[in-house]
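Bumping with the actual sequence this time:
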Amino acid sequence: MSLRTASALTVSALLFGFSVLPSTAHAKALDQCGGVFLTTDSKCEFKPIQQCMTTCATTSVEQSCSEKTYTMCGSMCTTTDTTACVTTHTDSCSKECDTITTKSSHDVCTSECTSNCTSDATSKGKFGGDHDKCGKACSHDCDSQCDSCSTTDQSTDCMTKCMSVTNSECKEEVNRDCVLSCQTDNYTSCETDTVNTCNTTCMDKGGALFCDGQFIDASDIKACADQLAVEFSFNIDLSAMVTVNGNGSVTTTNNDGSKTTTSTKCSFSPPTSGGKSGMALGALAVLGIAMARRRRRA
């Protein structure tokens, strides 16, 4: 978290009386939601097309691109010699036993790793020195490496905890420059592709899932919503989700998960020019009809 953001949150806390203590929620990788890490503190919603199209932007695909570029780059950066790193970090950790006795090794690992990685990435100009992008990338990278650390070992003796933390932290550290350089090189193209995917999802599904303002690139929105319900008890309203089929009919997802397909009884002639914009207008018109019918039924 940047100092500017932290200061803003502190002021808000004083004005409105809410807590800004660090979250102890543990991030989980959600395979049905594009592999991103989320927590019980995340705020997820299905944004209907009107809101969705205005939300798809480079700033809303940072988490998705952190995951995508890490998946690609992590498999190419495979340094395994962590001996020197482990020795240094173990000595450092053993001197901090008093401060980590009430924390799990997972909490210690993700906190230290993300902080060190973000500082390192920003100072070396990764992602053009953009602190937010560095933070998102490092958060995902560290969540991935620290995922094997226990979330319930608060009472475990310090040195055992330190060994778990340093082993995971050092796997990230020895490959950090390689991974972040690769992510930086591929990030811009990922942004462009993912923003396009976001817009396409908005058009094809009548909206898209967003968590904490970030687009969730889920191949199956319903499956992602179901996983969020199981993992975090999130109840996401998908009643606005529709699918425009090739024959012009519209499939609506009902609240119980069932689907209803209706014909619009409207046809759209293939555009003679500006093909993509014509298709977009046609899809919007079909979605408008579907939404109007939904309102009449309400």
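The tokens above came from a reply further down the thread. Residues 176-205 form the longest helix (30 residues).
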